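Supplementary Text 2. Reproducibility record for the structural model of the 225-residue chain.

All settings were left at their defaults, and a single model was retained for analysis rather than an ensemble. We include the record here because the model underlies the residue-level annotations in Supplementary Table 4.
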Amino acid sequence: MEEARNCGKQLKALNFEFDLVFTSVLNRSIHTAWLILEELGQEWVPVESSWRLNERHYGALIGLNREKMALNHGEEQVRLWRRSYSVTPPPIDESHPYYHEIYNDRRYKVCDVPLDQLPRSESLKDVLERLLPYWNERIAPEVLRGKTILISAHGNSSRALLKHLEGISDEDIINITLPTGVPILLELDENLHAVGPHQFLGDQEAIQAAIKKVEDQGKVKRAGK
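Retained model, structure tokens:
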């Protein structure tokens, strides 16, 4: 959680004041929001959680070592599974060691998705399709009211939202990498169009190193590296 605290410190140094926070229903998203608000001294800010901001469902790939996947399936296939817009990983089934843990989780009996509609696997396109209704119906109206919003989401739900707001093409989204624990600023106009490209806030050299670390996941380690 050190990354979350550092994120909060960065936002505090830039004097950010938030009116509303949105998270997924996954623990790391919720904990990150709590720690950021604690660092900001804004613990009282309302927090809302939605399944629609959850991380992408990687299907049968959940829990697998990315380097081993690259050895077994090739780096390009793993890159397509992880980074492309429309390629969906193989679906999870009941033989998967995490299947029952996921589909018996009590949070999915009380959150904003019927249990029988939980996906078995998702592409980034699928993530955007389930995220957009929440953006359009819940978050966007708050932005239009002039609220400053913090979204504590995940790598792929954040990529999907940026794709929509910045108009990033299906082909170019594969090259968009978001490092963990780095605040991203996106300013929107009155039509909810991005005023400019998203900005990473913080030490840019450290941010580029973090981006490379994410991009190197799913690659086969070679001797001498």
